[in-house]
Automatic annotation (TrEMBL):
This is Tryptophanase. SUPFAM superfamilies: PLP-dependent transferases (SSF53383). The modification N6-(pyridoxal phosphate)lysine is found at residue 253. The keyword Transmembrane does not apply. Pfam families: Beta_elim_lyase (PF01212). The keyword Ligase does not apply. Its cofactor is pyridoxal 5'-phosphate. One of its GO terms (biological process) is aromatic amino acid metabolic process. InterPro entries: ArAA_b-elim_lyase/Thr_aldolase, Beta-eliminating_lyase, PyrdxlP-dep_Trfase, PyrdxlP-dep_Trfase_major, PyrdxlP-dep_Trfase_small. Belongs to the beta-eliminating lyase family. One of its GO terms (molecular function) is carbon-carbon lyase activity. It comes from the Bacteria.
Length: 453
């Protein structure tokens, strides 16, 4: 059971089917353009959407808003330092700011980042710095249905081949995303991280963790990797950070905060260069674009997030929703992790081809049915067409992600999702595909307009 009870509640909007139908038309079937008060259960993201604890709110009241050297910074710094072991800790307003500092400093034309899977914003930051982002997911990741425990692993055979090969000299860093959000929220094993760390050290290449969900990864390691069964999530997390040379962190996930992040580094010279960029673009190094109260809430959240009782309850909540989704007749990327379920929309809607966007079609239908918002991870996100609209490339899978905000929704809300999804799945053959009527030059999943076909 959850190791907490509810002290403060927020009403959620309840809408009629007619209102939702009108809203879908108004936003041109792009759910990012809905007003939040048109959404009943918002599973768009687990980022910055969690519930704060009483202790976090109390810490916020004690926030020190001094411009330089605030008490809040020192509390934040000591917490992050103790968790990660990195001597240089730069606060930033959110994860992608840490990514920008790192890519701007480590990359340049012709340089490469290698990863189990780059998250979108990191991939965009690599491209903006003239670099290339190569994903090397392990072969097990390709089978969505298998129960393999660590489908978030990097393919160490390919990693070694790249590092040993002609492109080895171009590699600026290896990034391990914990858990692998772009790859179904799957965890990385400590064995895989240890081997990756050894390969990186051997080749003199920095290993950086994208640690947004480090605690969830650590929990899954304690559950799925026999060598770590007796360890606490905190012990696993501390060990993971110490296998790497640094981290980029979005505290909006496993900091259980509404905003915040940090860059942690071992290398003094690299940290110095990042710090100058931080001052120019984010803020002085003792606040990095955050208020003192934010730093205190993140520090507190980083302690709470590795509590095994919290992590177990979160895992059980996700497993509960996974059972409802399977019972509705909808396949998910197996086995489920903690932060989200990835629904196999392509399989549920075989009558909709990739370029009629089954994931987005399912997202819109689930919104119409129950006011539930998820996010497409399929060909709307990854596909391309030529100027006439003829398909060029499509995504490997057509998925709909239902992300689960931390400590926010109850099983009653999940039951509502399960019932709505069961109704959608029963009449799946009636769900229409969508065509793009307008799209921007890039990042089209956020700004496209669509219409049913
Ligand atoms: N890394 C990972 C693995 C992420 O999932 C995200 C954000 C970021 C970095 C960027 O952090 O948003 O604080 O700048 N993921 C959100 C999501 C947006 O919905 O999965 P940010």
């Amino acid at each position: 059971m959850e190791p907490y009870r509810i002290k403060v509640v927020e009403p959620i909007p309840v809408t009629t089917r007619e209102q939702r139908q009108a809203a879908l038309a108004r936003v041109h079937h792009n759910l990012f353009d809905l007003r939040a008060d048109e959404v009943t259960v918002d599973l768009l993201t687990d980022s910055g959407t969690g519930a704060l604890s009483a202790a976090q709110l109390a810490a916020a009241m004690d926030g020190d808003e001094s411009y330089a050297g605030s008490r809040s910074f020192h509390r934040f710094h000591d917490t992050v330092r103790e968790l990660t072991g990195y001597p240089h800790i730069l606060p930033v307003h959110q994860g992608r700011a840490a990514e920008r500092l790192l890519t701007a400093t480590l990359l340049g034309p012709g340089k490469l980042f290698l990863s189990n899977t780059h998250f979108d914003t990191l991939r965009a930051n690599v491209a903006l710095c003239g670099g290339e982002a190569w994903d090397l997911p392990c072969p097990e990741a390709a089978d969505l249905d298998s129960a393999e425990p660590f489908k978030g692993n990097i393919d160490t055979t390919r990693l070694k081949a790249v590092l040993d090969g002609p492109d080895g000299a171009r590699v600026g860093a290896v990034i391990m995303t914990l858990t692998n959000n772009g790859g179904g929220g799957q965890p990385v094993s400590m064995a895989n991280l240890t081997l990756t760390s050894a390969l990186c050290r051997e080749h003199g290449v920095p290993l950086i963790l994208d640690a947004a969900r480090f605690a969830e990864n650590a929990w899954l390691v304690t559950q799925r990797e026999p060598a770590h069964r007796e360890h606490s999530p905190r012990q696993v997390a501390e060990a993971a950070f110490r296998l790497a040379d640094g981290c980029v962190m979005s505290a909006k996930k496993d900091g259980i905060a509404h905003i915040g992040g940090f860059l942690g580094l071992h290398d003094t010279e690299l940290a110095r260069r990042c710090e100058l960029l931080l001052i120019a673009t984010e803020g002085f190094p003792t606040y990095g674009g955050l208020a003192g109260r934010d730093l205190d809430m993140v520090a507190r959240g980083l302690h709470e997030v590795t509590d095994p009782r919290y992590l177990r309850a979160r895992a059980e909540d996700t497993a509960y929703l996974a059972d409802l989704v399977r019972a509705a007749g909808v396949d998910i990327v197996e086995p489920p992790g903690l932060h989200a379920l990835y629904l196999n929309a392509g399989r549920l809607l075989p009558h909709i081809p990739p370029h009629r966007f089954p994931g987005q079609a399912l997202a819109c239908r689930l919104y119409l049915e129950g006011g539930i918002r998820g996010v497409e991870l399929g060909s709307l996100y990854l596909g391309t067409e030529d100027e006439q609209g003829a398909p060029l490339t499509s995504a490997p899978y057509e998925l709909l992600r239902l992300a689960i905000p931390r400590r926010t929704y109850t099983r009653g809300h999940f039951d509502h999702v399960g019932r709505a999804l069961a109704r959608v799945a029963r009449d799946a053959h009636l769900v229409p595909g969508l065509r793009i009527t307008e799209q921007p030059a890039f990042l089209r999943q956020f700004r496209s307009r669509l219409a049913p076909v």
